[in-house]
Amino acid sequence: MSDSKVLKDQAHSAFSPLIRASYGDLGSEMRKVLPEAGRVMIVGDDHTVPLYAEEVSQALSAVCKEVHVYMLPSGEAHKQLRTVERLLVALEEMHFDRHDVVAALGGGVVGDLAGFAAAIYLRGISVIQIPTTLLAQVDSSIGGKTGVDLDGYKNMVGAFHLPALIYTNPSVLSTLDARQFAAGMGEVIKTALLKDSALFHALRASGEAVMRRESGALLQIVSACAEIKAGIVARDPKERGERALLNLGHTIGHAIEKYMSFSLLHGECVSIGLIAAAQMSAARGLLAADDVRLIRDTCLFYGLPVSVAGADAERIFDITKSDKKMKGGQIRFVLLKSIGEAFYTDDVTDEELRFGIRSVLEDGGIK
Length: 367
Known about the structure:
This protein is an alpha/beta fold. Helices cover 47% and strands 17% of the residues. The protein has 15 helices and 12 strands.
């Protein structure tokens, strides 16, 4: 499929991104969905503001009377209530009102922080998402989940707040460092595993082009993943059922992320969590051993970790028990029937969970 056809076929909704090759159309597209928007606060971090804020400001200044920039410190360690409070104070001091807009310019941390601030300021003002990392473009910017960490637990405080616009420019992915790009591929692989076997095998076939970050290859995977996630959240916006599938790899992944004090990136932990889920699925007789190896090899090809060294399995197990997806003491866990077909279940036992954790420990894992 040509780049132009992919771009032409993209239609914006509250759930799906508008995919463009530059920021040139950003102002006009925002005006379409927010015709009364007065001022905009671009919220970025110390990586994205120097790279993109000027270009984005110019695009928005064409349709808004004022554009301001607020810079957050980068990193998961700052995804805290106090960071949101400082942003809220900045909005209040500038007298932002309900006709004004927050624009989240960055990766998942920026999107979550800015989106949460917009959700609770004046009981909710409009937010637009402008994702700049692969992980944000294929996952976190889509679906309206916002929030911050609490006591080291991922996204324990937050709100559903759908963006008025998701404006995705895959060309900026060329500026990502190798580790951040690989972390995004963790969410890409997850998306393929849960819903699209053809996409998973395409990741194998076109791996070299993806790793070279060829524009056509990036456009294909961003578009495919965005379409899958947008479809799921449109059918289940508040995670009452199908949307739970998007947590594939996340239960054990989140626990490892906390255990490691966020020294591993989110997508890296998702990769490890995918291997654990695949091992658990195989142990139930659902997933073929060859498929487990194929998933592992694919993660490794894209530079993702598949295990963690020197970890305390029982401590990771205990952390999973504080997962926000717990219900009545039982966790909702996502497993695989096959590559491209995931399901969620409430009957995973503690023994199975411990098995999954041990399967991704280098010094005690299951080979």
